[in-house]
Amino acid sequence: MTAQYRGRFAPSPTGPLHAGSLVAALASWLDARAHGGTWLVRLEDVDTPRCVPGAGEEILRQLATCGLVSDEPVVWQSTRAALYQQALDKLVATGRVYPCACSRKDIDSALLAQGVGRERHHSAVYPGTCRPENGGLRGRPARAWRLAVNTSETRVDWSDRRLGPQTQDVAAEVGDFVLRRADGLWAYQLAVVVDDAAQGITHVVRGQDLTDNTARQIVLQRALGLPTPAYLHTPLVMGADGEKLSKQNGAQALDLGDPLVALGQAARTLGLPAAARTTPALALEAWVKAWSA
Ligand code: GLU
Q: How many Å lie between the centroid of ligand 1 and the Cα of residue 125?
């Protein structure tokens, strides 16, 4: 038993659950139960243009069909702007963030001028044009807010409970990242860090596709004086094309006509033994034991 273990499943309601997201949901639930802890569901609906009306409620129904129910009232990020603003204000006060006027095109031409090529599909490392020491906004209107990633915290070493030691040079590989977007929306990085701390999350269990956000989130936790939870990133479910299954590449909604089938598939991805043909509740109980073993 871990004292006061608090875990969470934090889906973005951009569509119903699919086989991949059920793996993260099941793993986070099993880990919480195996530690005698609390399991929360948080709907990450800050990126409103990508959210689908009704998808959050649908996800909660699907989870309930699988026997996965939040131990505390479900939190919707869209109701928590005041908390995110407070965190940004704190970073403004400590001089850790700065407003940025650059469009994507501005960033590309600044990089080009510096002779830095950009690989296709990779997001650019921000060249620091609007950093206060480089002249700031120079009369241009502010679009986004960026965290100044100091070279002193450039290298973040952390340990994943499944993948082992991880390291990232956040300054070199990511650069000054956005906390509030040009369209006024809160960035995932800020919302997730603020909410994990506000909800007292001690253990984050989520899909492996999110692994390379972790170092950035640790940098932000340190800037805000917040604790860093333990991290475990779960295996991804691959589609027939060998690509990770995601809502974006049209992953099918789960067929929950027989929730044991969907749960059994997720359990297999996690390396858990097949469950006897019983009820979801009994299968979950057996998997908690296997998870703890
Ligand atoms: N909302 C994020 C997603 O669905 C996951 C956030 C997290 O678990 O940290 O991809």
A: 22
DSSP state of 144: E
- Strands 144-147, 178-180: pairing is antiparallel
Q: Please tell me the distance between residue 16's alpha carbon and the centre of ligand 1 in angstroms.
A: 14
Instruction: Determine whether the shortest distance from the Cβ of 10 to ligand 1 is under 6 A.
Output: yes
Report CA(61)–ligand 1 centroid distance (Å).
18
Does pLDDT of 122 surpass 80? no
Model confidence pLDDT, tens digit, residues 23-56: 999 999 999 999 999 999 999 999 999 999 999 9
Q: Counting atoms of ligand 1 from 1, which one is nearest the CA of 14?
A: 4
What predicted TM-score, i.e. pTM, was given to this entire model? 0.93
The H or E element containing residue 173 is helix 170-173
Domains of the chain: 6-79+196-292 (3.40.50.620), 82-180 (3.90.800.10)
Q: For the chain, how big is the Rg over CA atoms in Å?
A: 20
